[in-house]
Amino acid sequence: MSTSALNLDCLFVYSGSRAGKKTGLPIMPAGLLAMAGYLGKKGVRSAIINLPGAARGEFRLAELIRERRVKLVCIPVHWHQQAGTALLLAKKIKKENPGVKIAVGGFTASYFAAAILEKFRGIDFVIRGDAEVPLLELLRRLKRGGADFSAVKNLAWRVGNGAVLNPIGYFAGPAMLAGLDLTGLNYVLNRNATPYHGVCFEDGMFTYVHGRGCADNCSACGGGRDFQKNFNGRPRAAVKAPASVAADFAKLAARGITEIQLPLSPLPGDAYYVELFRRLLEIKLKPVLKVELCGLPSKNLLRWFSRALAPGSRITIFAGSGSEKVRRLNRGRFYTNEQLIAILRHAAGLGINIWTGFTSGLPFETRRDLLATAALMRRIKRLFNADRAGVYVFSLEPGSPLFENPGKYGITLRRRTLEDFLAQEGKYDMGYSTEHFPESEIVRNLKFLESVARE
Ligand code: B12
Ligand code: SF4
């Protein structure tokens, strides 16, 4: 359905990380598609704008909000690296359109809900955790002209000068996920909704999120089990049934999208992926898939992978450290270096590319552990004769186990509050030091590993 001429109840605007620039976190949260699709099925009109993916001058927000009588503007404050730009955007929109209500949501907003409402007067609501049902309830209440929002699940709102946090009573479980499809794509207003990098694409691949939450609790991750429970109100990880994921892939293929990335690895074990690949074979669909895993794939999974997917498909494994001690102390899904090499060898035999990701700055890491990481990266590059070992910079994530319990991990936090996160600068602004390394040395270590990756 075209949304071009109709009034809009709700407008989602993703800011990216720096207003007015095309660089910087151009991919919007997948949840925007889920929410817009859900609202559409309930007869509520919404549209999505991805600002970093827009051509210069493509959107004049103030006019669009006025002309299409938008009631609620929804701005993701999801990744802490884009929270500052998002909050500035909210302020600008409120100034230009004082009558419009503004809601924010996403992981960072869920963590800092009270602080956002207290410090940013232009923001009327924060929705914590999953938002499909709470957003619908909020929009219905706004339409009726109500001012009491105490019954809206997951909502945080302002009463007087204080923030009221309603209980979290909604999270998307498997049944809900099965009903959330990709119709949200119809509501994206960007003229070029399929850029190489941006809107919902990374390196030309559609970022398809097949579930929510995680069964594990890795020390540096801000989306693990405890974060989800304590700040998103999610009691357990949930995945969308493989058959309905395969059906979504078929719908993407019908739109000409055949390169897809699965960037979430919520459950340990292989059963889910094997079932998905079996379903794809059944419907004779062979996408190019990039599967990102937090654990090690089994030989069985690799066999199905090579049968079901198109050439160019690949796997990434985030191994963290080359030191087994550090991996064991920080990562939920443990494996030894020899098990990792054996699986890489097996994959190479089947013609499957696996990319491994490493980092430095994890708790308990010593200089010796850092050198073990460099040695493992070099070994992988030597054995598999390719750029297969890369570096990921894990800056401090709000709500991660090490953020919540720095003493347990021997960490000293420099960044704690919302203001601290808004003031961060750039990729290497770590925000913490470990018992073995001051912050400047963590950065040096990361750059050292990056130079190893380039060797
Ligand atoms: C999938 C994923 C990605 C995908 C995202 C695909 C996409 N289009 O969303 C990719 C690989 C692209 C990605 C990239 C990054 N990610 Co990421 N990612 C994840 C992961 C594994 C799962 C997230 C998830 O479950 N999404 C489920 C979808 C459907 O839900 P959703 O989009 O969040 O939306 C729901 C709610 O959050 C909420 N919501 C979201 N936005 C809004 C807005 C409003 C207004 C409202 C009301 C509600 C709302 O409602 C939605 C529907 O219910 C988590 C780890 C984890 N296990 O959770 C890390 C995680 C979210 N990512 C993280 C980070 C840091 C990043 C990067 C910034 C890394 C980097 N340095 O580059 C980039 C950002 C890239 C960009 N924007 O261009 C951190 C975020 C921590 C934080 N609080 O900021 C996490 C927690 C991992 C970690 N390192 O700790 N990521
Ligand atoms: S890193 Fe992966 S396995 Fe670990 S908590 Fe985060 S999403 Fe889960």
Give your account of this protein's structure.
This protein has 455 residues and is of the alpha/beta class. The protein has 2 domains: 10-165, Rossmann fold; 200-454, tm_1862 like domain (pyruvate-formate lyase- activating enzyme, Alpha-Beta Horseshoe), CATH 3.80.30.20. The chain has helices spanning 31-41, 61-67, 80-96, 107-111, 113-119, 132-143, 174-179, 225-231, 242-254, 271-282, 299-308, 324-330, 337-349, 367-384, 401-404, 406-409, 418-422, 439-454; strands at 10-14, 46-50, 72-76, 101-105, 125-127, 155-159, 162-165, 201-202, 205-207, 211-212, 238-239, 259-262, 288-293, 314-320, 353-358, 389-391, 411-413, 432-434. The strands form 4 sheets. A 7-stranded mixed beta sheet has the order 2-1-3-4-5-6-7, sandwiched between helices. Strands 8-9-12-13-14-15-16 form a 7-stranded mixed beta sheet. Strands 10-11 form a two-stranded antiparallel ribbon. Helix 11 (299-308) links the parallel strand 13 and strand 14 (314-320). Helix 1 (31-41) crosses helix 6, helix 9 (242-254) packs across helix 10 and helix 14 (367-384) packs parallel to helix 18 (439-454). The longest helix is centred in the last third of the chain and has 18 residues, at 367-384. It starts with 9 loop residues before the first strand and ends with a helix. 47% of the residues are buried. The model has no long low-confidence stretch (mean pLDDT 95). The structure holds cobalamin and iron/sulfur cluster (SF4). Cobalamin binds next to helix 1, strand 3, helix 3, strand 4 and helix 4. Cobalamin binds at residues 25-27, 29-31, 34-35, 74-76, 78-81, 103-108, 127, 130-132, 135, 172, 200, 202, 207, 209, 212, 214, 221-223, 263-264, 397-398, 400.
